[in-house]
Write a structure and sequence with these properties.
Order of helices and strands: HEHHEEEEEEH
Number of helices: 4
Strand content: 15-25%
Number of strands: 7
Structural class: alpha+beta
Oligomer: single chain
Length: 190
Amino acid sequence: MDFDIQQKINAQLNPGERILWTGHPRGGLVFRGSDIPFTLFGIIWLSFVLTAAFNALTFEEIPIPVLVVLVPFLAIGLYIVLFRFLHDAWRRSRTYYSLTDRRVIIVTGWFKLEVMSLSLRTLPGMSLSEKSDGSGTIQLGTSRSGFGWPSSMYWPGTSSRIVPSLELVQDVRSVYNQILQTHERGFQGN
């Protein structure tokens, strides 16, 4: 973790609060199962836009209003199929996690710092999703999603998830157990 991020996390600490763990999501492009419906929709969207553009270009004189209308639709399709994965990788490269003896802190942002703090004493629940390589995601709270959508799903470009998560963390089981132990100690202390 670079020095600047460590300073930003330290600035969030209350007097006497101790950092127990820091980490960040795995970098690079990631394709999740929840990306399948969006990607399929984007491919269908792009096929309609490209068909319309091809039909417009086959005229001897291209109707300018048609091309002007197609450009934003093309941009939306390209974002859904390609650029949202790049945006997600960029967002994760600027996200850092910290577990203290009192809470979980999520720091993200490049131009504007965003900090989410979740008290371990009031955390309503937690769930773990672990892959065979030991990496995974910890959802911090209970699922509020419906209609069969994954509760950790988000639309890239938004500032929050349905449920805050520590996503794509290495050795996720160890972090999960550490959060559980810290949570239990907090209640035993009173």
